[in-house]
User: Which sequence fits this backbone?
């Protein structure tokens, strides 16, 4: 195809049509990070043969990202295999992304394809979705020497008094990386955000994003819950719930933190119902409401949705639906001292350990 009409891209994405949803998310995420991508459904030109377009797109790409799934393995004659072979012949590095499949299954069912992919380390899409793996893909691209357009490392000379224009090519790369980190930060995907912030810190420890009053090093010292593993213990914001239920919440927080691991985001925080309901993003976190529906707005919201556990007593209520994967618990009694008994019962009955096992996806050591 002379005088190519194809849009040149950093990353060629190979996939089967049934995985278009994943491909769109990958492309959107990588493009937000400053990379360019090419995939057939969006970028193919009418009137030009598939083979011609794909061959040229692969040849121009710096990396080939392959989405491999059960649908791909079931395909008898997959165009994706042809794309991988072409990339292999051209010596392109691969990033295999696995959807609902393991690397062992790939090797067993498609040994020729696995051989083409060679030693490239694959990455699986977790239950949290594509957004959770984008930071690792971005770091993998950097390790392969593939940087976003306009990005380059900042030399230490820039901190030795040399002037540089705002949003120089080097700074532009950091602006993109910081914007991506703040997207993860906003959506409470804290490990992913911290990984990007650490990358920025490694390049420029004093980097301060335009419009922010703190630099990246100061931001890394901030504590923020992760929606997947960090537990919010919720008490009523009024004075009496703070006095009575606040102490129970503190003791439960300490018990959870004793079993957890802050480095893995396995910890608990005490917050108020008013604060939580005002910032809906935090409702995605695992929640334990302490106090009855009169004193705690979160309990009032979930009291009808969660069944009473059999350990509950006449005036002591423990509510949850852990068997259904629900990550909310309500602990309350008719009076303050009965709420305390509900909290103690939740711990002593082993329900707390069950809850943590579910949230942290690991077996806790029983004592």
Assistant:
């Amino acid at each position: 195809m002379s005088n190519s009409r194809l849009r040149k891209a950093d990353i060629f994405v190979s996939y089967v049509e049934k995985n278009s949803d994943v491909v769109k998310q990958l492309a959107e995420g990588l493009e937000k990070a400053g990379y360019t991508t090419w995939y057939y459904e969006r970028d193919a030109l009418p009137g030009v043969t598939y083979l011609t377009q794909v061959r040229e797109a692969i040849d121009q790409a710096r990396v080939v990202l392959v989405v491999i799934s059960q649908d791909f393995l079931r395909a008898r004659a997959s165009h994706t295999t042809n794309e991988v072979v072409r990339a292999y012949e051209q010596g392109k590095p691969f990033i295999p992304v696995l959807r609902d499949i393991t690397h062992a299954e790939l090797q067993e069912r498609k040994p020729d394809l696995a051989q083409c992919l060679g030693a490239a380390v694959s990455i699986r899409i977790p239950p949290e979705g594509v957004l959770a793996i984008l930071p690792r893909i971005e770091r993998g691209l950097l390790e392969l020497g593939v940087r976003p357009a306009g990005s380059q490392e900042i030399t230490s000379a820039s901190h030795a008094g040399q002037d540089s224009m705002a949003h120089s090519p080097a700074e532009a790369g950091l602006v993109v990386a910081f914007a991506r980190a703040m997207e993860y930060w906003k959506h409470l995907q804290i490990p992913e955000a911290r990984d990007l912030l650490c990358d920025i810190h490694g390049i420029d420890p004093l980097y301060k994003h335009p419009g922010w009053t703190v630099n990246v090093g100061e931001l890394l010292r901030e504590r923020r819950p992760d929606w997947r593993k960090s537990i919010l213990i919720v008490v009523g914001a009024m004075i009496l719930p703070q006095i009575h239920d606040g102490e129970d919440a503190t003791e439960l927080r300490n018990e959870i933190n004793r079993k957890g691991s802050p480095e893995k985001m396995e910890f608990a925080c005490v917050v108020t119902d008013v604060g939580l309901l005002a910032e809906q993003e935090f409702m995605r976190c695992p929640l334990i409401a302490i106090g009855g529906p009169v004193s705690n707005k979160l309990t009032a919201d979930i009291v009808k949705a969660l069944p009473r556990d059999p350990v509950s007593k006449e005036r002591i209520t423990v509510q949850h639906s852990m068997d259904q994967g629900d990550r909310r618990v309500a602990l309350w009694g008719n009076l303050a001292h009965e709420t305390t008994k509900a909290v103690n019962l939740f711990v002593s009955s082993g329900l707390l350990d069950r809850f943590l096992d579910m949230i942290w996806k690991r077996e806790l050591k029983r004592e």
User: Anything to note?
Assistant: The two ends are 69 Å apart (CA to CA). The longest helix spans residues 239-259. The CA atoms of residues 316 and 333 lie 5 Å apart.
